[in-house]
Design the sequence.
């Protein structure tokens, strides 16, 4: 009886498999022999859009305040005469808080190309620790808060009085200024904590102080310069009262688009306490202000009472479901990170990696609020450190976002190797010293601007020493590892954000659309790989045509990747 067409096809497949069998066995053994050869495959990248909670690990990233505090803003026009001889002045009790509050005159828009001048008197009648207020020119529209677009006096209160700083903060968050009340060095104490301090030289007993403040855009070869004087009616004035304080703008500050449209009082937008201060005998930009009656200045939140939950050092960052500061759809990573308080982080479990691994990450970032003396870090670090930040404990590869104040907030590469025994602090109030190596300059992160970024650590760069490149927008800065640091090593098992508890203020920063090195490849041995290829050929024999068989055989020998395992190897 003749063979049917289907039987003849099966006979041909059997003959072909009989001829192919030995080759498959050889291929399996060749796979074993070849399993250790070739280049090391790249580490695995992970992408996170934060469209839902990523379930990252949080440590001290949500610090609940120990208690709420009632804020009672109560300042504006007052019929009193603490600061002047006649009744009528402006001022009152001003709280340092996250909600903006101000009382100011609307003025024509001024820039750093305009001449500015003001004078008057003030009197401080009550103060407390962690209190503060600003007086001078500023911009009424303040998206996100912060100190941008302001020029004037900053008062910082303590229980015994206050200190004064003269400061300009440009539209791009770069700042310059000078301390009016001085630093004191107690030479009887050893170098370190407590040797240098700044007493509250402005008395809170109602002493009247006369002041002047002028800005000349043509001074200092056209770079611009501002200066001030402060003198009390005390029979024994302090040394700073006999001086004129002068600040020259760094080159380029005038070109940063800084504008002012208000002149008056404004609270410091950082959680704190209250001080009570009054101003009188005011002149500004050629106008004499008569406070015999209410001048009708604009008040914003200056007569308000509310419960404040934010406190200094109370971190509040991590997954943020409702916000989209960094663009795109709701859901991102970030929040409020203090440069004080306990160490905290929010990070994904990765690796573990070492300084022998290539690491890369990219995404979008926006700094919504960035006052002076604030900063944070992000990148790969070691979760075993729980008392001190990696900047002090070691084991870190990533980026620092932070000052100095004159530039705003750099976006620069940083790293720290493993440290067997960190040096203990010399004082109970002192934190261990910073051990990170950081680039001294680089791109600047300007508030309210969403910017793409990229970070690459290449262990083979810089002649094999290793190097980190950080790119913000179209600017890149590189940092090569110091000789011998790569050999010291680092253990890196988390990727995310962390704080540093060197004393300072807070910032608010957000990230989205992250792609980052998250895992090492899972390399299959030659035997599983060859068995998988053998299975492909068997399936072709069982279900395919002769043409499919030839294709499978070709893939086995050519290794075109069409039938490679989906898991990286």
Sequence:
């Amino acid at each position: 009886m003749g063979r049917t067409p289907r039987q003849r096809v099966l006979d041909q497949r059997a003959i072909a498999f009989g001829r192919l069998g030995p080759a498959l066995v050889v291929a399996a053994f060749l796979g074993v022999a070849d399993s250790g050869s070739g280049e090391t495959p790249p580490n695995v990248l992970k992408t996170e859009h934060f469209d839902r909670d990523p379930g990252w690990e949080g440590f001290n990233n949500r610090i609940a305040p120990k208690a709420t505090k009632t804020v009672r803003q109560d300042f504006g026009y007052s019929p009193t005469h603490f600061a002047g001889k006649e009744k009528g002045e402006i001022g009152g009790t001003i709280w340092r808080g996250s909600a903006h509050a101000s009382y100011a005159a609307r003025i024509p828009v001024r820039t750093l190309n305009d001449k500015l001048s003001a004078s008057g008197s003030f009197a401080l009648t009550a103060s407390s620790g962690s209190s503060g207020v600003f007086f001078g020119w500023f911009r009424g529209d303040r998206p996100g808060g912060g100190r941008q677009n302001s020029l004037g006096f900053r008062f910082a209160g303590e229980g015994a009085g206050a200190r004064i700083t003269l400061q300009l903060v440009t539209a791009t968050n770069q700042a310059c200024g000078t301390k009016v009340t001085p630093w004191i060095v107690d030479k009887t104490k050893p170098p370190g904590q407590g040797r240098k301090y700044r007493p509250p030289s402005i008395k809170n007993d109602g002493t009247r102080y006369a002041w002047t403040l002028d800005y000349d855009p043509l001074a200092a070869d056209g770079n611009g310069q501002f200066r001030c004087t402060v003198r009390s009616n005390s029979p024994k004035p302090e040394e700073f009262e006999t001086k004129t304080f002068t600040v020259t703008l760094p080159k380029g500050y005038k070109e940063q688009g800084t504008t002012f449209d208000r002149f008056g009082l404004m609270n410091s937008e950082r959680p704190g306490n209250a001080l009570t201060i009054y101003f009188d005998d005011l002149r500004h930009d050629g106008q004499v202000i008569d406070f015999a009656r209410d001048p009708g200045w604009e008040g914003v939140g200056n007569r308000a009472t509310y419960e404040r939950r934010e406190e200094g050092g109370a971190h509040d960052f991590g997954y943020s479901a409702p916000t989209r500061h960094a663009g795109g759809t709701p859901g991102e990573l970030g929040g409020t990170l203090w440069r004080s308080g306990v160490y905290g982080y929010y990070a994904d479990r990765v690796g573990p990696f070492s300084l022998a691994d290539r690491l890369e990450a990219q995404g979008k970032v926006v700094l919504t609020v960035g006052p002076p003396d604030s900063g944070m870090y992000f990148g790969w670090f070691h979760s075993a450190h729980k008392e001190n930040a990696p900047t002090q404990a070691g084991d870190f590869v990533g980026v620092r976002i932070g000052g100095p104040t004159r530039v705003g907030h750099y976006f620069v590469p940083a790293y720290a190797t493993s440290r067997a025994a960190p040096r203990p602090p010399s004082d109970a109030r002192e934190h261990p010293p910073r051990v990170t190596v950081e680039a001294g300059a680089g791109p600047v992160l300007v508030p309210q601007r969403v910017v793409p970024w990229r970070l690459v650590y290449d262990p083979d760069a810089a002649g094999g020493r290793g190097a980190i490149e950080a790119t913000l927008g179209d600017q890149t800065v590189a940092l090569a590892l110091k000789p011998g640091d790569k050999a010291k090593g680092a253990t890196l098992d988390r990727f995310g954000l962390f704080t540093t508890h060197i004393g300072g203020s807070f910032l608010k920063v957000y990230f989205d659309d992250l792609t980052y090195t998250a895992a090492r490849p899972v390399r299959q041995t030659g035997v599983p790989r060859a068995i998988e290829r053998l299975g492909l050929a068997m399936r072709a024999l069982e279900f395919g045509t002769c043409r499919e068989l030839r294709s499978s055989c070709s893939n086995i020998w050519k290794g075109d990747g069409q039938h490679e395992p989906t898991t990286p190897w």
About this structure: The CA atoms of residues 229 and 243 lie 7 Å apart. Confidence is low (pLDDT under 50) at residues 22-37, 531-569. Helices lie at 5-34, 390-393, 485-488, 526-543, 546-558.
